[in-house]
Amino acid sequence: MNDVIQLNSLDNICVASKPLSANHELEFGGGTVVVASDIKMGHKVAISAIAAGEPVRKYGQVIGFASELINAGAWVHSHNLANGKIVLNHEKAIEQPVVDSPILSTVFKGIRRADGSVGTRNYIAVISTVNCSATVSKFVARHFTPDKLIDFPNVDGVIALTHETGCGMKQLGQKHQMLNRVLGGFARHPNLAACLIIGLGCEQATPGTLMLDQKLVQIGSGGAPAGPPVFSMQDLGGTRKTVHAAIEKIESMLPLANAVERSDADINEIILGTECGGSDGNSGVTANPALGIASDWIIRNGGTSILAETSEIYGAEHLLTRRARSIEVADKLLKLIDWWKWYVGLFGEELDNNPSVGNKEGGLTTITEKSLGAIAKAGGSTLEDVYQYAETVDKKGLVIMDSPGFDPPSVTGMVAGGANVICFTTGRGSCFGCKPVPSIKIASNTPMYDRMIDDMDINAGTVLEGESVEDVGQRIFNEILAVAGGKKTKSELNGFGDEEFSPWTVGPVL
What we know:
Distance between the termini: 57 Å
Largest sheet: 7 strands, parallel
Radius of gyration: 24 Å
């Protein structure tokens, strides 16, 4: 294992690949740099003197400016590095990269639905239109314990999709439309064999509005409207009667939901959602670029990969606008960045407040540093399009979906858009599940992987020990196919994923 990694020849810092002790000697360019103090794994060390006000570079890019003189060998972090005003060159659509990746196994065992879409899991969902029906929806789902589903081995479970909103909003205003996109996207998701909808009866986000807005109502063979069954607590006579009626309905759904068989599906049916949470200084060195390799291979073989977390693209967006399919696509991304700067400013905040306490403990300092590492998940493919939160993703290739950096709402939006597999990289050890979609956890460093092995699926920390990023990327690619075909992830084996459904909505609560 190398003591440190210099990611680009332009960099004036390096990243510690293991804990370093004070007075440890590092060799750079024929010279020696002596570490001035103990340095944690994932943190930055100056390899040359950096004057106050001078740029600090990582990945060959400016990640901020020295707030004081930084001597060679010094620890570089929040005490001497600030994001500052970084001027970016937003060149648009000037590169159309050709990803040279192998054509690998392109088949997984998927679940083909009647509409032709392909699922990777087989759930029944209870969808709550408003927080007022959340408890009833959970009561219904919790009734279906593993014992009660023992005769339906092809059903992965019954889940409640509940949230904290659904009223106190302008009907079909921005807040309502965002919620409708999420609920409609989940109702149509190929990982659901069936769903039913439970409302209170007097909410602003009525089930009827949801059904019409999201085109969940269709005309059946007899000429009558057909769609997911709808239950109104007020019309049915209260909580107990609603729970009883919904349970009876799901019991009638189970035999048909169970009557599925996995069959060969092409990799072009994969819509991969990529997420990073609890990132550290090695996330952009190991796990994220390895996931980028797997993302490129998914795309090369005809599939789709989603990059989200717009607030964690900020500061690195210029690297994506360069490889946009068109100037129009690049402008879509820049418009989102401008909106986010305006939006956080309404609350007196800045996007540089994004790195969390845990991120900084793991070695990340500025939002630009975090974003440069985060977009590595997108690999090197052409950016095909940019989507609003929870919009249906209908393009192949690399796309961006607007979302916050907070993991649950970000993943919720991607799943609503159609993602049927999630890859989640983490350096600090985020424990995340995402029913009804499997979430593959990828660790950025070996110590955390070993410590949290019950929650981590893949160790990308081996890059620091000599394994190539490409080889780790192939391991991730193979795992995506295996999990899409039914292999359980650690979060699934642990039973996680019931509480992470978290729609993002923007606007006042009235």
